[in-house]
Amino acid sequence: MKKSGSHTQLQTLIRSFDHFENQIFLTFDDGPNDHSTSRVLDVLKSRSVPATFFLVGQDVRPQLKLVQRLVSEGHQLGNHSWDHLYANYFSSETRLREWVGRVNQEFRDLQLPESVGFRPPAGVVTPPLVKALASLREPLILWNERFFDAVFQWGRARADRSARRLSGGSIVLLHDGQKAERIEAFCETLDHYITSLRARGFEFAALTREICLTESGF
Q1: Are strands 23-31 and 52-55 parallel, antiparallel or unpaired?
Q2: Between vectors from CA 177 to CA 133 and to CA 72, what angle results, nearest 5°?
Q3: Residue of 145, 153, 155 whose CA lies nearest to 192
Q4: pLDDT tens digit string along 146-170?
Q5: Distance from CA of residue 180 to its chain's centroid?
Protein backbone atom coordinates (compact mmCIF):
# COMPACT_ATOMS: atom_id res chain seq x y z
CA MET A 1 0.00 0.00 0.00
CA LYS A 2 1.16 3.53 -0.70
CA LYS A 3 1.56 4.85 2.79
CA SER A 4 4.06 7.24 4.23
CA GLY A 5 5.59 6.43 7.56
CA SER A 6 4.07 8.21 10.51
CA HIS A 7 6.03 9.97 13.24
CA THR A 8 5.23 7.07 15.54
CA GLN A 9 4.07 3.52 14.89
CA LEU A 10 0.63 4.31 16.27
CA GLN A 11 -0.93 4.61 12.85
CA THR A 12 -0.12 5.04 9.18
CA LEU A 13 -0.60 8.36 7.43
CA ILE A 14 -2.79 7.95 4.34
CA ARG A 15 -1.76 9.63 1.09
CA SER A 16 -3.16 7.24 -1.50
CA PHE A 17 -4.18 3.60 -1.99
CA ASP A 18 -2.70 0.97 -4.24
CA HIS A 19 -5.63 -1.46 -4.14
CA PHE A 20 -8.06 0.76 -6.07
CA GLU A 21 -6.79 0.48 -9.63
CA ASN A 22 -9.57 2.43 -11.34
CA GLN A 23 -10.82 4.79 -8.65
CA ILE A 24 -9.93 8.40 -7.91
CA PHE A 25 -10.85 10.06 -4.63
CA LEU A 26 -11.70 13.76 -4.99
CA THR A 27 -11.52 15.61 -1.67
CA PHE A 28 -12.41 19.20 -0.85
CA ASP A 29 -11.14 21.28 2.09
CA ASP A 30 -12.10 24.45 3.97
CA GLY A 31 -15.90 24.35 3.60
CA PRO A 32 -18.72 24.63 4.08
CA ASN A 33 -18.81 27.97 2.30
CA ASP A 34 -22.15 29.59 1.48
CA HIS A 35 -21.05 31.11 -1.85
CA SER A 36 -18.86 28.34 -3.29
CA THR A 37 -19.62 24.90 -1.82
CA SER A 38 -23.04 24.83 -3.46
CA ARG A 39 -21.44 25.58 -6.85
CA VAL A 40 -19.04 22.67 -6.41
CA LEU A 41 -21.92 20.40 -5.41
CA ASP A 42 -23.77 21.41 -8.58
CA VAL A 43 -20.85 20.23 -10.72
CA LEU A 44 -20.50 16.95 -8.83
CA LYS A 45 -24.23 16.28 -9.05
CA SER A 46 -24.32 16.98 -12.79
CA ARG A 47 -21.52 14.43 -13.30
CA SER A 48 -22.74 11.91 -10.68
CA VAL A 49 -19.43 12.11 -8.83
CA PRO A 50 -19.20 11.30 -5.10
CA ALA A 51 -16.51 13.10 -3.12
CA THR A 52 -15.29 13.74 0.41
CA PHE A 53 -15.53 17.14 2.09
CA PHE A 54 -13.21 17.95 4.99
CA LEU A 55 -15.18 20.53 6.96
CA VAL A 56 -14.14 23.25 9.40
CA GLY A 57 -16.18 22.44 12.47
CA GLN A 58 -17.17 25.94 13.56
CA ASP A 59 -18.79 26.57 10.15
CA VAL A 60 -20.93 23.43 10.09
CA ARG A 61 -23.84 24.55 12.27
CA PRO A 62 -24.24 27.95 10.55
CA GLN A 63 -24.26 26.15 7.17
CA LEU A 64 -26.17 23.07 8.30
CA LYS A 65 -28.60 23.02 5.36
CA LEU A 66 -25.67 23.05 2.96
CA VAL A 67 -23.97 20.22 4.85
CA GLN A 68 -27.21 18.24 4.86
CA ARG A 69 -27.40 18.70 1.10
CA LEU A 70 -23.85 17.42 0.81
CA VAL A 71 -24.76 14.27 2.74
CA SER A 72 -28.04 13.72 0.90
CA GLU A 73 -26.21 13.79 -2.44
CA GLY A 74 -23.93 10.94 -1.43
CA HIS A 75 -20.77 12.71 -0.28
CA GLN A 76 -18.73 11.85 2.81
CA LEU A 77 -17.63 14.14 5.63
CA GLY A 78 -14.13 14.60 7.00
CA ASN A 79 -12.78 16.53 9.98
CA HIS A 80 -10.65 19.58 9.08
CA SER A 81 -10.30 20.87 12.66
CA TRP A 82 -12.58 23.17 14.61
CA ASP A 83 -11.20 26.54 13.50
CA HIS A 84 -8.38 25.99 10.96
CA LEU A 85 -5.99 28.00 13.14
CA TYR A 86 -2.35 27.00 12.82
CA ALA A 87 -1.54 28.15 16.35
CA ASN A 88 -3.13 24.94 17.59
CA TYR A 89 -0.13 22.97 16.35
CA PHE A 90 1.88 24.43 19.21
CA SER A 91 -0.58 23.03 21.76
CA SER A 92 -0.37 19.95 23.95
CA GLU A 93 -1.59 16.52 22.95
CA THR A 94 -4.62 17.05 25.20
CA ARG A 95 -5.50 20.33 23.53
CA LEU A 96 -5.06 18.81 20.07
CA ARG A 97 -7.34 15.93 21.03
CA GLU A 98 -10.00 18.48 22.01
CA TRP A 99 -9.44 20.42 18.76
CA VAL A 100 -10.15 17.32 16.70
CA GLY A 101 -12.75 15.76 18.99
CA ARG A 102 -14.90 18.88 19.13
CA VAL A 103 -15.69 18.54 15.42
CA ASN A 104 -16.68 14.90 15.77
CA GLN A 105 -18.93 15.81 18.69
CA GLU A 106 -20.52 18.54 16.58
CA PHE A 107 -21.25 15.98 13.86
CA ARG A 108 -22.92 13.74 16.45
CA ASP A 109 -24.92 16.59 17.98
CA LEU A 110 -26.21 17.56 14.52
CA GLN A 111 -26.93 13.93 13.62
CA LEU A 112 -24.47 13.96 10.74
CA PRO A 113 -22.51 10.91 9.54
CA GLU A 114 -19.28 10.07 11.30
CA SER A 115 -16.09 11.64 9.98
CA VAL A 116 -14.00 9.48 7.65
CA GLY A 117 -10.92 10.86 9.38
CA PHE A 118 -8.90 13.99 10.08
CA ARG A 119 -7.06 16.18 7.61
CA PRO A 120 -4.85 18.79 9.30
CA PRO A 121 -4.98 22.35 7.94
CA ALA A 122 -2.07 22.85 5.50
CA GLY A 123 -1.19 19.18 5.99
CA VAL A 124 0.90 19.88 9.09
CA VAL A 125 1.69 16.71 11.07
CA THR A 126 3.41 16.78 14.46
CA PRO A 127 4.15 14.00 16.98
CA PRO A 128 1.58 15.31 19.52
CA LEU A 129 -1.09 15.44 16.78
CA VAL A 130 -0.33 11.87 15.70
CA LYS A 131 -0.69 10.71 19.31
CA ALA A 132 -3.91 12.65 19.76
CA LEU A 133 -5.41 11.12 16.63
CA ALA A 134 -4.34 7.63 17.64
CA SER A 135 -6.06 8.03 21.01
CA LEU A 136 -9.25 9.01 19.16
CA ARG A 137 -8.83 6.25 16.54
CA GLU A 138 -9.08 9.00 13.95
CA PRO A 139 -7.43 8.24 10.58
CA LEU A 140 -4.90 10.83 9.39
CA ILE A 141 -5.60 11.59 5.73
CA LEU A 142 -3.48 13.71 3.39
CA TRP A 143 -3.22 13.45 -0.42
CA ASN A 144 -0.85 12.66 -3.28
CA GLU A 145 -2.13 15.27 -5.78
CA ARG A 146 -2.74 18.97 -5.19
CA PHE A 147 -3.02 22.23 -7.13
CA PHE A 148 -2.63 24.95 -4.44
CA ASP A 149 -6.02 26.12 -5.66
CA ALA A 150 -6.76 27.89 -2.37
CA VAL A 151 -4.13 30.45 -3.41
CA PHE A 152 -3.85 30.26 -7.21
CA GLN A 153 -6.49 29.98 -9.90
CA TRP A 154 -6.85 26.37 -11.06
CA GLY A 155 -6.97 26.10 -14.83
CA ARG A 156 -7.23 23.51 -17.59
CA ALA A 157 -3.51 23.26 -18.33
CA ARG A 158 -2.68 22.10 -14.82
CA ALA A 159 -5.75 19.88 -14.71
CA ASP A 160 -4.69 18.21 -17.98
CA ARG A 161 -1.17 17.52 -16.72
CA SER A 162 -2.62 15.93 -13.62
CA ALA A 163 -5.14 13.83 -15.54
CA ARG A 164 -2.33 12.42 -17.71
CA ARG A 165 -0.14 11.33 -14.79
CA LEU A 166 -2.67 10.31 -12.14
CA SER A 167 -2.88 6.65 -11.12
CA GLY A 168 -5.71 4.69 -9.53
CA GLY A 169 -6.09 5.07 -5.80
CA SER A 170 -4.98 8.71 -5.85
CA ILE A 171 -6.38 11.17 -3.33
CA VAL A 172 -6.79 14.61 -4.92
CA LEU A 173 -6.81 17.74 -2.74
CA LEU A 174 -9.05 20.61 -3.86
CA HIS A 175 -10.79 23.43 -2.00
CA ASP A 176 -14.49 24.23 -2.09
CA GLY A 177 -13.79 27.31 -0.01
CA GLN A 178 -13.06 29.37 -3.13
CA LYS A 179 -13.09 33.15 -3.40
CA ALA A 180 -16.10 34.56 -5.23
CA GLU A 181 -14.01 35.84 -8.15
CA ARG A 182 -12.46 32.39 -8.75
CA ILE A 183 -15.37 30.00 -8.25
CA GLU A 184 -16.73 30.06 -11.81
CA ALA A 185 -13.38 29.20 -13.39
CA PHE A 186 -12.74 26.64 -10.67
CA CYS A 187 -16.01 24.86 -11.41
CA GLU A 188 -15.34 24.88 -15.15
CA THR A 189 -11.94 23.30 -14.54
CA LEU A 190 -13.43 20.75 -12.13
CA ASP A 191 -15.95 19.68 -14.76
CA HIS A 192 -13.18 19.38 -17.36
CA TYR A 193 -10.97 17.41 -14.94
CA ILE A 194 -13.74 14.91 -14.24
CA THR A 195 -14.36 14.45 -17.97
CA SER A 196 -10.64 13.97 -18.65
CA LEU A 197 -10.19 11.35 -15.94
CA ARG A 198 -13.24 9.42 -17.07
CA ALA A 199 -11.84 9.44 -20.60
CA ARG A 200 -8.83 7.57 -19.17
CA GLY A 201 -11.17 4.95 -17.69
CA PHE A 202 -11.22 6.14 -14.08
CA GLU A 203 -14.22 6.11 -11.78
CA PHE A 204 -14.77 8.29 -8.73
CA ALA A 205 -15.40 7.26 -5.15
CA ALA A 206 -15.76 8.89 -1.78
CA LEU A 207 -13.59 7.86 1.12
CA THR A 208 -15.26 5.87 3.87
CA ARG A 209 -14.35 5.57 7.52
CA GLU A 210 -14.03 1.80 7.17
CA ILE A 211 -11.50 2.08 4.35
CA CYS A 212 -9.50 4.71 6.21
CA LEU A 213 -9.51 2.82 9.52
CA THR A 214 -8.18 -0.27 7.77
CA GLU A 215 -5.53 1.69 5.89
CA SER A 216 -4.49 3.40 9.14
CA GLY A 217 -3.83 0.08 10.82
CA PHE A 218 -6.42 0.56 13.57
Answers
A1: parallel
A2: 75
A3: 155
A4: 999 999 999 999 999 999 999 999 9
A5: 21
